[in-house]
UniProtKB/TrEMBL annotation, chain A:
The keyword Amino-acid biosynthesis does not apply. Keywords: Coiled coil. SUPFAM superfamilies: WD40 repeat-like. Residues 378-486 form the BBS7 GAE domain. It comes from the Eukaryota. GO terms for cellular component: axoneme; BBSome; ciliary basal body; membrane; neuron projection. It comes from Pyrocoelia pectoralis. One of its GO terms (biological process) is intracellular protein localization. Residues 21-318 form the BBS7 beta-propeller domain. This is Bardet-Biedl syndrome 7 protein homolog. Residues 335-362 form a coiled coil.
UniProtKB/TrEMBL annotation, chain B:
It comes from Pyrocoelia pectoralis. It is found in: Cell projection, Cilium; Cytoplasm, Cytoskeleton. This is Bardet-Biedl syndrome 2 protein homolog. Pfam families: BBS2_CtH (PF23351), BBS2_GAE (PF14782), BBS2_hp (PF23353), BBS2_Mid (PF14783), BBS2_N (PF14781), BBS2_pf (PF23350). Residues 167-274 form the Ciliary BBSome complex subunit 2 middle region domain. Residues 688-709 form the BBS2 C-terminal helix bundle domain.
Length: 722, 713
């Protein structure tokens, strides 16, 4: 690591949301900055750190959850005015804590994100965007997608004011005067926007749910430019970005906080084609909600101030802690300031313990009284997410609680596989499944001490849909547990794309009937992931494109009132949609006409797609077998190895990678076989033939795989051209 | 900042190592050599201090790495241990265990000390002083027994274990300077032997895979479900469970605390250093591959030992005592602050819970069912009983609430009775109610602690209250009272115990799950008819006022368990009994006959091989001869050779099945002996085993049965 940072803990507050932390600007270079932090209990506080002690400037009373904190000021002055948003209200405070603005936005939805630029105020709810100038509404926009973040900036050349909103449907929209002027498609759902200012250039960068950071080009090409931080494996979602010169360099560094608790510092050079270089990484085991860079703990030392979901505020400082180690004995000793701090904290904890003890007794007593008292435990706030991991076609489920988790009970009414996650140290135990009781999966995760966050990996089977429930029990007294439900959709292995290849052989499914747009939209929403929650009213027909994570097959959906068309190169996908829609329409007693056009050539196409996967897997298993055989020979010495043919030598060299690859996909082949079997059954189902009895024969063909034989088995009358 | 202990040396052996088969020996008396078994069934000896390379013989020095030598034994390796063994010699002897033999090899002199057949196999070995012996003994654990051999290869110790031995350790259990033997076996048990006598037995929840002796009469154990724990004599100090498996355990003072810590190597490549007393993790590091073994030795010739970790891929890392952490502990100021802050956070959160509760009660009247508000007086009632009416009799746990709240789900944590560690009952939404019953099938007669967590709320709640209960199921839970009186079973065990019948009643009530407590008023005897829920077999307990006691059951091991439990309860030091188990006796007779047949045929087969080998040699010479002289003849000879080869393979398969059968019968015999010995308590049990051994050696079936019946010939 080129950069060494040391963790210093400052304070704890309530649970925080994203963009809840800011640093007030300094008046003198190198001066310590004050920390502004707001939490879900509605408390906004500003504090400074003096000699390791917290000096509170001011603190508001608890109220509604604060969703965003922004700093701004009159143009030309310092940005030291604090704006907070909660429910649908915006309040402004001076740095001394004086309330100077209380503004009711009259928005129909609670505010989820806010941006303040001079006299312009931008507020976004889940689906609405509002622009206010001097607290006067000057425009709004209704978005079908879910809006996750908003920023605004003046374009360098034209000095026009442009607002950008990041939408969950893989889209970043630019608005001028509340009209969409630009829709920029990105590959993955954005989570956060940030303005990167470096040497008079202003650029917009964004983070995504799959852990990448991309650059937008607003001025020239007006579209997505390139990925600047990209990891090939799945990494956790980006939750916040900041830019700062952590290392004295020409360009600003990018500092990223992730949902899995990783804090990373990158050096980038945008002019170059070269990608970023990682300078530092730390993991704090709690998801990071917000981070700011500046000078906090000690004058003249740069640091990254971090707020985590559970409300911890800590810094990663460039100041070394080595001053606390005397050179001769190499022992740690406590400096007087920190000793005082520790004593103070200890006293606080003791006092709290006393109070909790009393309350505990009171609660115990209430359970023994015959009065009609109730036992009400406030709802735990649990942060959860279930994100598709495209690399291995699975879902990553994360659960985070503000206190340590005792255990998690997982229950599912559809068959799913739980995969092992390296990061997760909890002891998993499977209980016998009872399909007759709707329990296809019953498992407990017993967490090790101090686990606030649990990450699980789940593999679903397309066509099997239902609900996965997680009962989360934290360790806190009085013990309670909360259920979280996750829908597993019929086409769970699909994700949205912006376009598809038109040339593929497509199978078509068309339905007609007396259904409304809302109805068909909700069916599609229930069937496929990443469909916007609300239908877009602008167009008469909605067209959506999807791609399968496992096979890469495409799906196109076209629907409007009374009519829907689906096209996919995979017959199984069409079959799943048909089954689902028939079920849903029967439930609502809506009559529909279904017509299906099967394209026989799509079979060749799919088998061609699977072919390389089967081939490479067969090769891999053969190589692993060979490796075992080679080890039987006991070749370990270099001289004996050299006596082997080059093929075997290469094999031995690559052994580790091969074995890792092999063990990473234990059920890979089974999955492929499953897909082919489904395809076979579905293909013939559309032809009105039941082929259940011929499945064993299909499996024997697969075991001695050959593309031509397999194709012939699927289409006995098909004539090979070559 | 994080405590860092960096390895002081690392090196690559470039051999793949079998996990667990790692030891270290000073074969020349001064320089330690890391010794391990490779996956190619060779013994690898790493001698970084080798001066001369004149050692020849069995050991083959590698040409690429001058420090590595390999030794082939042409058999699969199953155990490896090195240590001082010969009297008046300070050079370590290497013991190599294979499925059929044990080789005591003097590496420095390149000679075999002895090469002995072990029909029972070699599964684990340990060297050390034991009991009265002046010289170290080597203990060999096999499929069902433990042998102790002295330096001449003579058997000086033997005991039956009952299942495959997984690990052996020698520990000074009573801190009196004399070692006791600790043996773990696949029946989840750790047994402690003082001389021939079993002085303690601990039953774990899964197969115990490893043992390691620790200072101060402690020992560490690891279980195949990922548990590691430490015992101090009979008391378990701590245990922890993780999702990986402990491969190797070793004690070493890594942190310079003056006393040793337990270093554990895990299957995922982690090593951790824990306090022996509390199990607290003091340091951890991670290697790329699974650990194969951990040993300590003065590997740098500096007069102080280092702890050496070896992975399955042949990576070696050495760590040494690192003092920089200081005596006062451990945590740096930042860590202290962090800990205090999290404590504060936790307390604040709890306080908030209570405050909200009070506020809710003050403003009562809001029916928020989904938040899981339940009457404060909600209680959980639990009943445990045997259920012999269902088609599959079981122990039933019945849980209900005392009002209209429902139980959403129940999680039962218990070890050893489920597939995993939990059993979950999650009824479908339509069948939710205020009570639930959970059937339990207990595979073994051991007392089990069960921890029940019940999620209580209303059908539409999204948050539930969790009620936690802990219960202990008595040892003999799987037996229920039986109506009526049947004829007594003809298998029984009879003994005399001097205890009042009232006390016996207490024992019964404590150890069985009966609907009402048994009471003894008066009368000449107490008789209880029971039925086993597993196989519906009968069990009759008969206690005469005179002290004569009979247990009627056809299950030998159940009788043994009952006697052991009763003896512990009454604190009986010594107990002799008469046993009559015709079925087991009959089985024993057949097994003994099978065994002697096998031994006969083994001899015959042996001569057959020698014969065939002669023929082969002859044919090969002839065939090659005719290659030069008469080419047409060659085919004929090779055809013949092929036939003989096939015969040899056939013969091998016969011998293999013979061997397996022999091993299985030996195991069954030993298991019966072991159970029979548990019908007795104290010295009687040890004596009985001795007598049995003599009877088996002399192949005297009558005597063996007599010993089992009466405890003596």
């Amino acid at each position: 690591m080129e950069l060494e940072l040391f963790r210093v803990d400052y304070n704890i507050v309530g649970i925080t949301s994203k963009s809840c932390l800011k640093l007030l600007p300094y008046t003198k270079i190198g001066e310590q900055q004050k920390v502004v932090v707001a939490d879900n209990e509605g408390i906004l506080q500003v504090f400074a750190v003096k000699k390791e002690d917290i000096q509170l400037q001011f603190k508001t009373l608890p109220g509604h959850k604060i969703t965003s904190v922004q700093l701004s000021g009159e143009p030309g002055t310092m940005s030291d005015k604090i704006f907070i948003s909660s429910e649908n209200e915006v309040r402004g405070f001076t740095k001394k804590g004086k309330l100077f603005l209380s503004f009711d936005s009259n928005m129909t939805e609670p505010i989820t994100s806010m941006y303040v630029l001079g006299n312009d105020l931008f507020l976004c709810g889940k689906h609405t965007y509002n622009h206010y100038k001097d607290c006067k509404d000057i425009g709004s926009y209704l978005c079908g997608d879910c809006i996750v973040d908003v920023i605004a900036l003046h374009i360098n050349k034209t000095h026009r004011l442009v607002a950008l909103i990041a939408c969950e449907g893989r889209m970043i929209r630019a608005l001028e005067h509340a009209r969409v002027t630009l829709s920029m498609e990105v590959e993955s759902s954005p989570t956060v926007l940030h303005i990167y200012e470096d040497n008079d250039t202003k650029l917009v960068i964004f983070g995504t749910v799959d852990g990448r950071i991309g650059l937008l080009d607003i001025e020239k090409t007006q579209s997505f430019n390139k990925w600047i931080i990209q990891d090939n494996r799945f990494s956790s979602a980006i939750s916040c970005i900041d830019s700062y010169k952590m290392v004295q360099n020409e360009h600003q560094n990018i500092i990223v906080g992730r949902q899995d608790g990783n804090i990373e510092v990158y050096s980038i050079n945008l002019g170059d084609n070269e990608t970023s270089a990682l300078l530092h990484t730390t993991n704090c085991n709690e998801s990071v909600t917000s981070l700011c860079c500046g000078i906090v703990g000690e004058a003249n030392y740069d640091e990254i101030l971090v707020a985590t979901y559970t409300g911890r505020i800590f810094g990663l400082t460039t100041q070394t802690v080595e001053r606390n180690i005397t050179t001769d004995s190499k022992n740690y000793y406590f400096t007087t300031e920190s000793a005082q701090k520790i004593v103070k904290l200890k006293n606080e904890v003791e006092e709290l313990q006393m109070r909790v003890g009393k309350e505990r007794e009171k609660y115990q007593a209430s359970t023994h009284s015959y009065m009609e008292e109730m036992s009400a435990i406030p709802l735990l706030s649990i942060r959860d997410s279930m994100v598709q991991s495209k690399q291995d076609a699975s879902y990553v489920l994360t659960l985070e609680v503000p206190t340590a988790i005792d255990n998690v009970l997982l229950q599912s009414n559809v068959p799913v596989d739980l995969l092992d996650v390296e990061k997760n140290s909890a002891v998993v135990s499977f209980s016998e499944a009872e399909p007759h009781n709707g329990n296809f999966l019953l498992a407990t995760y017993r967490c090790q001490v101090n686990t606030n966050r649990l990450e699980l990996k789940i593999r679903t089977i397309e066509g099997q849909y239902g609900t996965l429930q997680a009962y989360v029990t934290p360790i806190i007294q009085p013990k309670c547990c909360q259920v979280r439900q996750f829908e597993i959709k019929p086409l769970s292995m699909h994700f949205r794309v912006h376009s598809i290849e038109k040339k593929r052989p497509y199978n078509l499914l068309a339905i007609k009937g007396l259904f409304s747009l809302a109805e068909i939209h909700s069916w599609v929403f229930q069937c496929i992931p990443e469909v916007p929650e609300k239908p877009q009213f602008v167009d008469t027909t909605t067209t959506l494109f999807f791609q399968s994570t496992f096979l890469g097959t495409h799906l196109e959906c076209n629907f409007q009132k009374g009519e829907a068309k689906f096209a996919s190169d995979n017959i199984s996908t069409i079959s799943i949609i048909r089954e689902f829609l028939t079920k849903e329409t029967t439930k609502k007693k809506i009559k529909i006409d279904i017509s299906i056009v099967v394209n026989d050539d799509s079979i060749n196409h799919i088998l061609k797609l699977i072919d390389p996967k089967l081939q490479s897997h067969a090769k891999l298993s053969k190589e692993v077998l060979l490796l075992d055989a080679l080890h039987e020979l006991g070749v370990n010495d270099t001289e004996t190895v050299q006596a082997l043919s080059t093929k075997y030598q290469v094999l031995l060299e690559k052994e580790k990678e091969l074995r890792a690859e092999f063990s990473n996909q234990p059920a890979y082949l089974d999955r492929l076989y499953g897909i082919i079997t489904d395809l076979y059954i579905d293909y013939y189902k559309f032809k009105g033939v039941s082929v259940k009895s011929r499945i064993p024969k299909l499996l024997t063909i697969l075991d001695n795989y050959d593309y031509k034989n397999l194709l012939l088995f699927f289409r006995p009358d098909f004539e090979m051209l070559d | 900042m994080d405590k860092m202990i960096r390895p002081i040396f690392t090196l690559e052996l470039n051999y793949k190592i079998v996990p667990g088969l790692v030891t270290i020996g000073k074969y020349d008396g001064t320089h330690p050599c890391l010794t391990a078994a490779t996956t190619a069934d060779k013994v690898l000896i790493h001698s970084p201090h080798r001066r001369s390379s004149n050692v020849t013989g069995r050991v083959v020095w590698s040409e690429s790495n001058r420090e590595i030598a390999t030794l082939s034994v042409n058999q699969a390796l199953s155990a490896l241990v090195a240590g001082k063994f010969l009297p008046n010699e300070d050079k370590d002897i290497l013991f190599i265990g294979t499925p059929t033999h044990v080789l005591a090899y003097h590496v420095h002199d390149n000679r075999d000390v002895f090469y002995k057949e072990c029909t029972d196999g070699v599964k684990a070995m340990a060297i050390g002083h034991f009991g009265e012996s002046k010289n170290p003994l080597v203990f060999i654990g096999g499929n069902s027994s433990v042998h102790g051999l002295n330096y001449e290869g003579e058997e000086v110790f033997w005991t039956a274990v009952g299942d495959i031995v997984t690990s052996i350790a020698l520990v000074d259990y009573y801190k009196n300077g004399v070692n006791e033997l600790i043996v773990s076996s696949e029946d989840y048990t750790i047994r402690v032997y003082k001389g021939d006598k079993v002085i303690n037995e601990n039953v774990e929840t899964e197969v115990v895979t490893g043992l390691a002796s620790l200072p101060e009469s402690r020992f560490a154990y690891s279980v195949s479900n990922g548990t590691v724990g430490v015992y101090e004599q009979e008391v378990r100090l701590w245990r922890v469970k993780s999702k990986n498996f402990a491969i190797s355990m070793h004690y070493y003072d890594l942190l310079g605390q003056g006393s040793a810590q337990l270093i554990t190597g895990w299957s995922n490549g982690k090593i951790d250093c824990r306090s022996i007393k509390t199990g607290e993790v003091l340091f951890k590091d991670s290697l790329k591959h699974s650990i194969a073994g951990i040993v300590d030795a003065d590997y740098r010739s500096i007069g102080k030992t280092d702890v050496i970790c070896l992975t399955v891929e042949g990576e070696v890392r050495g760590y040494t005592t690192t003092k920089c952490l200081g005596e006062n502990g451990s945590a740096s100021e930042q860590e202290t602050v962090r800990d205090l802050l999290s404590q504060k956070q936790q307390l604040l959160l709890e306080l908030k819970q209570y405050e909200n509760n009070t506020r809710y009660n003050e403003e009562s009247g809001k029916g928020q069912e989904d938040m899981g508000v339940i009457p404060a007086s909600t209680r959980l009632q639990i009943g445990i009983a045997t259920n012999d009416e269902s088609p599959k009799p079981h122990v039933e746990i019945f849980i209900s609430t005392n009002n209209d709240t429902i139980i959403r789900a129940i999680v039962i944590f218990a070890e050893g009775i489920f597939k995993g560690e939990t059993n979950i009952v999650h009824p479908p939404r339509t069948k939710l109610g205020s009570n639930l019953s959970v059937p339990l099938l207990l595979p073994k007669d051991i007392p089990i602690d069960i921890h029940i967590k019940a999620f209580v709320g209303y059908p539409n709640s999204i948050q539930y209250h969790v009620f936690e209960l802990t219960r202990q199921l008595p040892r003999f839970s799987m037996y229920s009272l039986k109506e009526g009186k049947d004829k007594h079973n003809d298998s029984y065990v009879e003994f005399k115990i001097n205890e009042r019948l009232q006390r016996i009643c207490i024992w019964i009530n404590q150890n069985f799950l009966l609907p009402t407590d048994i009471e003894y008023d008066c009368g000449a005897y107490l008789e209880i008819y029971l039925k086993c829920l597993r196989d519906n077999s009968d069990l009759v307990l008969y206690f005469d006022a005179s002290g004569k006691t009979n247990f009627y059951t056809s299950n030998l091991s159940l009788a043994a368990d009952l006697i052991q439990s009763l003896a512990t309860f009454c604190k009986v030091e010594s107990l002799e009994s008469k046993a009559h188990f015709p079925e087991d006796e009959k089985r024993l007779t057949t097994l003994m006959e099978v065994l002697s047949e096998i031994q006969d045929s083994r001899l015959r087969l042996g001569t057959d091989i020698a014969d065939k080998l002669g023929q082969i040699r002859n044919l090969v010479v002839r065939a090659e001869d005719s290659r030069i002289n008469a080419l047409e003849e060659m085919c004929k000879y090779y055809d013949e050779l092929n036939i003989i080869n096939k015969e040899l393979i056939n013969g091998y398969n016969i011998r293999l099945s013979n061997y397996t059968e022999g091993r299985e019968s030996m195991k069954s015999i030993n298991s019966i002996i072991q159970k029979a010995s548990r019908l007795r308590v104290g010295p009687n049990a040890a004596n009985m085993i001795g007598h049995c051994r003599t009877a088996i050696k002399n192949n005297n079936i009558e005597m063996l049965i007599k010993v089992i019946q009466n405890g003596e010939p």
